[in-house]
Amino acid sequence: MTPLAQTPAKAGNGTDAGTQRSAGDSVHRSTASGHLVGDMSMEGKYCIVTGSNCGIGLQVARGLMRRGAHVIMACRNMTACEQAAAALRSEGLSGSCTCRMIDLENPSSIRAFVSQQAAELAASTDSEVLFMGAGGSNNNSGSGRPSDAGVEDAAAGLHGGQRLRQGRRYVDVLVNNAGVMGVSPAADGSDRHLTINHLGPYLLTRLLLPHMTHGSRIINVASRAHYNGSLSLASNPDGRAETIRNDTHHWFWQYSRSKLCNVLFTAELQRRYGYDSPFALTAAKSSSSRGIGDGSSSNLPVIGGIGAHAVSPGLVDTGIIRYLLPGQLRWLLAPLRPFFRTPEQGAEVVLYAASSPELQARNALFLHDCRERQPSVAARDPRLAADLWRVSAALLGMPEEGEELGPRE
Ligand SMILES: NC(=O)c1ccc[n+]([C@@H]2O[C@H](COP(=O)([O-])OP(=O)(O)OC[C@H]3O[C@@H](n4cnc5c(N)ncnc54)[C@H](OP(=O)(O)O)[C@@H]3O)[C@@H](O)[C@H]2O)c1
C-alpha cells in the first residue's frame, strides 16, 4: 500500500513535543512508530468524539483541543465525562470542550444526542465562520476562535459570502471511538459488541451526515482484530441479505466481527459519500445554490467529498479489558505492559486521520501506525459492505438511504 506518512524518523515519545514546523500551516510530528506525519491546526473545527471520558478517546479529545478544536465529548457516564473535561480544561489547551450524553446501545439516546447537536450547530450559526471572499477576512465574531474554513472554501472553488448564505456550522470531524470488548449478551441474546461497536455508531453517523459538509471527516476506530472477523448475513428467498446471523457466541469472535463491521461501514461510507462519490464535486460546486443543510427539502440531496477512515490504534493499555478482567486482577497483565502502547500513542493514528493534510481528498480505508494498510479480504468485499449497510438500516428500522438526506433542521 502507499505509505501516507512522510520521511521515517527516529521513534518519538508519542507526544506533541516532537513536532517540527514546516512550510504552511502544518507541522510534522513524529509518532510512536517512528514516522513523521503532517499535522494541521484544527482551530475552530467542530469535532465529536464518542467515549472520550477515558482511554484512547480522552487522548483524542486532548490532541484535538491542543490543536485548537472545539470537542464535543459524547459519553454515557456524565460524571466521568465532566471530570475528564475539567481536567482537560485545566491544562490550558487552546481548544475547548463540551460534555454531551450519548448511550450507543440505545437508539433513542443517539437520536436525542443528534437533535441536540442540530440545535446547537444551528444556534452557533451566524456568529461563526463567515467567509468574506478572496482578499476578505474571516470574521468569527461569536466564539472568538479563528477559523480556516474560509481557506478551505476557497480551495473548493467557493466564493466570498457563500458560507454566509449557507448560514450554519457543520461537524468537521466525527470520531466513532467508543467501544466494548468482552461484554455479555443482551437479555434477548443479541450480541452487544455488534450493537455498541457497530449499530450505534452506524446510526449516529447516518443521522449526523446532514450536518457534515465537503471536507468533513469520519474516523471509525477499528482494530487489527478485524482480520479475525467474519460476517455472515442471512438472506430471504430472493437472495437479498436480511439480517446478521447470530452464529458467533464467543466474545473474541464477536468483537472481531464488530471491528470488521467498522471497516466495511467505512468502505461503504467512502463509496456513497467519499471523495470519488458522484456527489463529491457537485457538493463542492453547488453547495451555495443547493444549500447543504440550509433547510431546503425540495432540492435533491447532495452530500459528498467526506473523508471516511477506519483506524487501528494498536495494542493499547486502557480499561477496555474491564469486562474480562476485574480491576483487582489487572496485575496479571503486568508482564505484557511493555508490549502495550500508552493511550496517547494509541490516539496518534486517530489524530492523524482527523487532521493530516496527507489525507485531504484521499480515501484511505484502513490505517495503522499512520500508514495505509490493506484490510482483510472480507473488509474489501464491496458486496458485503453494501449488504451490511442495508441490513444495519433494516435492523434499526430506518430507510437504506433518505433519513440522512431528508429535510435539515
Ligand atoms: N485498547 C486497545 O488495545 C484497542 C485496540 C484496538 C482497538 N481499540 C478500540 O479503541 C476504542 C476505544 O477503546 P479504549 O481502549 O480506549 O477503551 P476504554 O478505555 O474502555 O474506552 C471505551 C470508551 O467507550 C465508552 N463506551 C462503551 N460503551 C458505550 C456506550 N454504550 N455508549 C457510549 N459510550 C460507550 C466507554 O464509556 P464508559 O467509561 O462509560 O464505559 C469509554 O469511554 C474502541 O473502539 C476499541 O475497540 C482498542
TrEMBL record:
- Do you know which InterPro entries this protein is assigned to? NAD(P)-bd_dom_sf, SDR_fam
Q: Where is this region: Disordered?
A: 1-34
Point to the regions of Polar residues compositional bias.
16-33
Stored Pfam families:
adh_short
Q: What keywords are assigned to this protein?
A: Oxidoreductase
Give the domain of life: Eukaryota
Gene3D superfamilies documented for this protein: NAD(P)-binding Rossmann-like Domain (3.40.50.720)
GO MF terms on file?
A: oxidoreductase activity
- Give the protein family: Belongs to the short-chain dehydrogenases/reductases (SDR) family.
Tell me the protein's name: Uncharacterized protein
- Organism encoding this protein: Volvox reticuliferus
